[in-house]
Design brief:
heterotrimer; A mainly alpha (about 300); B alpha/beta (about 450); C mainly alpha (about 280); A: about 300 residues; mainly alpha; MetI-like fold; 2 domains; disordered N terminus; disordered C terminus; B: about 450 residues; alpha/beta; D-Maltodextrin-Binding Protein, domain 2; five-stranded mixed beta sheet; globular
Chain lengths: ~300, ~450, ~280
């Protein structure tokens, strides 16, 4: 967007308000600042904020990337170096060939993908139910959804493992997917309920009058308006599943069922830590999240609710 | 399947598709079991977990040994699962409680007592008897076997072990006017040497320190402190394990001397409280410190980090403040699960790992210390200068205190160590308080 | 009703048996090979008299409050920034998501290393700025807890920012336009349009963040394991030690129950504002 011109703004306002007669109108190439285009001050503030954000978020990431591209002899130099003197891709090769990183990746993708899908579907259904209908027990049920989260994982670990083992479900994808879905559902349900609350019930009623079932009203009318919420839910569930360690390492007793976090943590040994491979694994592990976000980003836009209801 | 599902995230309007998606989500998760690998059929398969399998040095060697074992025993298949160290004990405890513990597992000496008490491990003495009884077990270092025993029952076979010793930098010795062939033999010499080896640069900043202290509250660091105690003739617990002896003069003296290296004499780099074995070794590799206490198999990490330090690194027994002071050691064992469904086959694997050839192979690959004195006499090892120092150190080994609550007691001691290092309490006060706490635990 | 059932089914399956088992275990004491013995409320009374428990409780609370505040403030600022028309917005949104992409173990190892007294880049950077160091982040009890709180803030704020960003997107434009027509300054618009609309999202983020940070385990265990000398010992690391180092499963279960009750009380207080 171009900057405001240096013509005094009063001229154009005055003209457009009709206070200055139009026969004295001079073709002034004045660019009115669009209503939501920022002033220079605001713009400066934005850039400062963006710079601060970028540095804050990225400097550890830069360090991780730098370490993954070094070899061990350079890793602990005092003072430390940001740019590797001997650039090497060995670490990435090592984790892919010596460790079964490919398999771990595959497992992670399946488990996280299924968790995301299941979470979105269940959470949007439940959120809608809480939003639109009066349920027996009402508020207590909503709190009950959260209550599932309140026990610390380490305390639940042994009984969950025992349960999975009795049901012969160890080393299966479903046992992990169900566990992770239970971790992410409480937040997702509440999140979606909040979004649905913001969509007026008149829209549902209009749809029902037009002949939709309750489910139809939900899917055709309400759901599309809450895309940003769905996106946040999707990213959230994916990350919960992708980054979970404790349950992943305990519930998988065979290496073929390991996920990426377990593979990365394998580099922390009793007598030495394989830092370069650790960082290489961490770098690779961020790629699916970035891809997922890039795919979903366009839905994280201003909702279509503006203008949907006119009286 | 999941990639397709993600690509079609644009929400469908048709309600039938919502039902389909729910079904897909649920069904897909169940169907995905089809994608899982099948388990080998036909042989008896035993499961083996170890955090050593994840190590870049030990992992390949262990896998090679397993492959050899499978060739020699065609009816037995071994499913080796490398398991990360983080939460390893939690994982084993969880599996054991559910009756799903793998047939064979690796265990650090510090966990043995607890696992024996909780009933996770199988008594191996019937198998050891069949293999030669006292003669079989007699080939290993006595202390190693004793630590794994409860009366006549034996619960673990040693895999590798080594006494604590000191590393020192011979170049720095020469620069400071010290004789590299004469490392310190008692504490006074150690302090004197450390002071000489601490150098400042022109602007008064210290650029080299004499000694590296391990001050984290982790078992490895507390063990290194225990080495100091043993070298002073001090004990943390009484022989019957019923009283704490941390308030004894020799114990307090140890804490005082050790922490004053940091707080008073300034021969230790800043940040001792967060220095674990890896950090201290790195500082040695980067030539920031001249000496440290460690185990022989840390040498390879040091050399990998900085190949130029290899020719100037020497090792020596830990200085003895009292005559004939023993060395503490780190040891790792292989154990069999009490709920193992294939004990005979599991024993065969344990026996295989316990062979002299296996121990030798492990030493050559990783420098993990041999568990039998005889190995040091073998030609491959006899010429290795480092190994010969270890052989000498191993002649006087003393185990860490054998007590089921040792992990907890070790945490209390670690707290006291950190308090002394940070000057939060005087050494006397820190150990007196710790003594009271330990006595509480021992009740 | 049918809408809600599937979720409760999933939650119930996973949580029901473990929670019942934990409750049962909390009134038992484990005796190693001999099994468990009923001891009534002994574990709970022991907890109340245990100074370690109270110290850990205090640390947990400090850690949680610090983290949640940090997440909310940073998250809100970031969301507001990323809601505006800035160049390369999608890129900056991904950048703001980066800290959240790593597993807790990775974050803990990385920050522990960066904050290392000798080998860390943070001290190196501070030294090059002329600040007299080295700063012993994990040695001084006063610095250790803030160090892990800052690490946790870094790791978790994208959650708040992306949720609040989604919530910001749902605020109808007309409300801002109406406020502008009424003569409201940007600050007043923020106070009277943005904040009220964000109330639900803020409360839900705060509630869940409180729950997660209170029961967070991986990061603290890997970074400090409760040190130095218990300065960063929190309830979860204490429960872990009770279970897997001391094999006192009943005591750990009691700790878990107490933690849940605390969280339940806190949640009810928060959530009443939006129900």
């Amino acid at each position: 967007m171009s900057q405001t011109s240096h013509e005094p703004r009063a001229t154009s306002t005055a003209q457009s308000q009709g206070r200055v007669p139009s026969d004295t109108w001079r073709p002034v190439r004045v660019r009115r600042r669009a209503p939501d285009e920022p002033t220079r001050l605001v713009r400066a503030g934005q850039l400062l904020g963006l710079a601060a954000l970028t540095i804050f978020c990225l400097f550890p990431f830069a360090w991780i990337i730098a370490t993954s591209l070094k070899d061990l002899s350079e890793t602990f130099l005092i003072p430390p170096t940001w740019v590797p003197r001997h650039f090497t891709l060995d670490n990435f090769v090592k984790i892919w060939t010596i460790q079964a990183f490919g398999r771990y990746f595959f497992n992670s993708l399946i488990v996280s993908g299924c968790t995301t899908l299941l979470s979105i579907v269940l959470a949007s259904l439940a959120g809608y139910g809480f939003s639109r209908f009066r349920l027996p027990g009402g508020h207590a049920m909503m709190v009950a959804v959260l209550a599932a989260q309140m026990f610390p994982g380490i305390v639940l670990l042994i009984p969950y493992f025992t349960m999975a083992s009795r049901l012969q479900m160890l080393n299966t994808y479903p046992v992990l997917v169900v566990a992770y879905t239970s971790f992410s559902l409480p937040f997702c349900v509440w999140m979606m309920k909040g979004f649905f609350d913001g969509i007026p019930t008149e829209l549902d009623e209009a749809a029902v009058i037009d002949g939709c079932s309750a489910l139809g009203a939900f899917t055709r009318v309400v759901l599309p308006l809450s895309l940003p919420g769905l996106v946040a839910t999707a990213i959230f569930s994916f990350l919960v599943a992708w980054n979970e360690y404790l349950f992943a390492v305990v519930l998988a007793t065979r290496e073929s069922m390991y996920v990426v976090t377990v593979g990365i943590a394998s580099n922390i040994g009793q007598f030495r830590i394989q830092w370069n491979e650790l960082m290489a694994g961490a770098v690779l592990a961020t790629i699916p999240t970035i891809v997922l976000y890039a795919l979903l980003e366009r839905h994280l836009v201003r909702g279509l609710s503006a203008g949907a209801v006119k009286g | 399947m999941s990639r397709e599902a993600r690509r079609s995230k644009t929400i469908d309007r048709d309600s039938r598709r919502i039902f389909l998606k729910t079904a897909l989500a649920a069904g897909g998760t169940l169907l995905s079991t089809r994608l899982m690998p099948a388990v080998a059929q036909g042989k008896t398969t035993i499961s083996y977990i170890s955090y050593e399998l994840t190590s870049a040095a030990a992992g390949p060697e262990l896998k090679r040994q397993i492959a050899e074992f499978e060739k020699a025993n065609p009816s037995i298949g071994v499913e080796a699962t490398p398991t990360p160290l983080a939460q390893y004990t939690a994982k084993v405890a969880t599996m054991a409680k559910a009756g799903e513990m793998p047939d064979v597992a690796t265990a650090d000496v510090l966990w043995l007592r607890g696992w024996i008490n909780e009933g996770y491990l199988k008594d191996l003495s019937p198998y050891a008897d069949k293999a030669g009884g006292k003669q079989y077990l007699g080939q290993f270092y006595d202390t190693l076997v004793k630590l794994a025993s409860d009366g006549n029952k034996v619960y673990a076979i040693p895999a590798f072990a080594g006494g604590y010793l000191i590393y020192y930098n011979t170049d720095m010795y020469k620069e400071a006017g010290l004789d590299p062939a004469k490392p310190p033999t008692n504490w006074d010499e150690m302090l004197a040497y450390a002071k000489k080896l601490t150098k400042k640069d022109a602007s008064g900043n210290t650029v080299q320190w004499g000694w590296g202290i391990h001050g984290q509250n982790i078992p490895a660091d507390v063990s290194r402190f225990m080495q100091w105690m043993y070298s002073n003739g001090a004990e943390p617990l009484s022989a019957d394990g019923k009283t704490a002896l941390l308030d004894q003069p020799k114990a307090i003296e140890t804490l005082k001397f050790w922490s004053e290296l940091y707080t008073k004499h300034g021969v230790v780099p800043p940040g001792a409280v967060q220095a674990g074995p890896g950090e201290v070794r790195s500082m040695f590799a980067q030539k920031k410190i001249a000496m440290l206490v460690g185990i022989i198999w840390g040498l390879d990490q040091v050399f990998a980090e900085n190949p130029s330090v290899r020719p100037v690194t020497a090792i020596a027994p830990f200085p003895k403040q009292v005559p004939n002071a023993p060395s503490l050691f780190q040891a790792v064992y292989n154990v069999m699960s009490a709920s193992s469904k294939h004990p005979e086959e599991a024993w065969k694997l344990l026996e295989y790992f316990g062979r002299p050839e296996s121990g030798l192979g492990l030493y050559k690959a990783t420098r993990y210390g041999p568990v039998r004195p005889a190995t040091f006499e073998r030609p491959e090892v006899k010429g290795d200068a480092y190994a010969q120092v270890l052989a000498k150190v191993n002649q006087q080994l003393k185990p860490p205190p054998i007590h089921p609550q040792w992990e907890r007691i070790s945490k209390v001691i670690g707290d006291a160590m950190q308090r002394a290092l940070t000057n939060a309490k005087t050494p006397e006060a820190a150990f007196t308080e710790a003594n009271a706490q330990v006595n509480q635990i021992l009740k | 009703m049918a809408f809600v059932a599937p979720s409760f089914l999933v939650l119930g399956t996973v949580v029901a048996f473990p929670v019942c088992n934990t409750l049962w275990l909390s009134v038992m004491e484990s005796r190693g090979k001999a099994g468990v013995v009923f001891v009534g409320l002994a574990n709970y009374t022991r907890l109340l008299h245990d100074p370690e428990f109270w110290a850990a409780f205090q640390n947990s609370t400090t850690f949680t409050i610090g983290s949640v505040l940090g997440h909310l403030v940073l998250g809100l600022l970031t969301a507001l920034l990323l809601n505006q028309r800035i160049p390369f917005r999608p890129l900056f949104r991904i950048i703001s998501l980066v800290p959240w992409m790593f597993a807790a173990v990775v974050v803990a190892m990385t920050w522990r290393w960066m904050l290392d007294a000798q080998l860390g880049i943070i001290n190196a950077a501070l030294a090059s700025l002329g600040l007299r160091g080295p700063f012993l982040w994990f040695e001084k009890a006063r610095l250790a807890l803030p160090a892990i709180v800052v690490t946790n803030i870094w790791r978790g704020f994208p959650f708040a920012s992306i949720t609040l960003l989604a919530a910001l997107q749902a605020i109808p434009k007309e409300q801002y336009e109406a406020a502008a027509v009424d003569g409201a300054s940007p600050l007043m618009q923020f106070r009277f349009v943005t904040l009220p609309n964000l109330k639900f999202a803020l409360i839900i983020v705060a509630t869940l963040d409180t729950i997660w940070n209170f029961k967070h385990f991986d990061l603290i265990q890997v970074m400090t394991n409760g040190g130095p000398a218990g300065a960063t010992e929190v309830l979860t690391t204490l429960a872990y030690k009770a279970s897997f180092e001391n094999f006192e499963f009943g005591y750990a279960a009691a700790m878990g129950v107490v933690m849940s009750l605390i969280l339940l009380a806190t949640t009810v207080v928060y959530v009443r504002r939006i129900l």
